[in-house]
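Observation: inputs received (chain + NAP).
Thought: call the complex predictor directly.
Action: predict_structure
Action Input:
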Amino acid sequence: MGVRGRVAVITGGASGIGLAAVKRFAHEGAKVVIADYNEEAGREAEKTVRETGGEAVFFPVDVSNRESVDRMVGSVLEKYGQIDILINNAGITQDAMLHKMTTEQWERVLAINLSGVFHCTQAVVRHMRERGYGRIINTSSVVGKFGNVGQTNYAATKAGVIGMTQTWAKELGRTGITVNAVAPGFIRTPMTAKMPEKILSMMAEKVNVGRLGEPEDVAYAYLFLASDEASYVNGIVLSVDGGLSL
Ligand code: NAP
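Observation:
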């Protein structure tokens, strides 16, 4: 699927799903920007891709900080002169039951998972409009569609991401830019490694394909939506959850 030669910015590209996407896109011939605030893991990811003959470069960014995002986007445009693909993949959890959730937990998750998506997209969209081409992919979650105990903040952001995706699909469709979301189920990454193995096994039993997801499962969904061939797919929320949401 066509991403060869495309410049793809993948936020949160140093770990988990983002890292799997970085490797897959580089393998398919894209010039990949690993945009992450974990410098050590980001540089390691860059090295791994380069050792396998792919093109990747790490740019540090905190997606919750507009100046940091503008700096990252400016550096990418200076290096490559274009951004074709933006994958708003960076995200965090800070779980607590509603009656125990602190304002700090609420605000931090919103700042990264929701405002971060807004900042990154706004920072690239003028450039994409001028070129008349763009693929924007936002990472939602099964939790954004159905909620989850202990995840008021996370569910709010992942539902919000769907709202922004649909709005931008309507705003930008005529400019050559498509905007879609991916809603993963439970995927084995450092994020879910924080959950007890017992809960993960219970989750796996509920999944119709009988297993948890792997980061690569989501990376392939990103790849399809980012490809040249997906030009008539706009505003969808693609579930990658093994049928969990049925
Ligand atoms: P992960 O392994 O924790 O990776 C997330 C990456 O984003 C990390 O490298 C993290 O850096 C980085 N990051 C966090 N805050 C950032 C910020 N402010 N600016 C830039 N980078 C930042 O997570 P994952 O499981 O791959 O999740 C990727 C996306 O999929 C997230 O949006 C998540 O909500 C979504 N998702 C995951 C699952 C799942 O089951 N794993 C399910 C549904 C949706 P640090 O390591 O330094 O924190």
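Thought: report the result.
Final Answer: Residues 103-131 form the longest helix (29 residues). The domain at 7-185+218-240 is CATH 3.40.50.720 (Rossmann fold).
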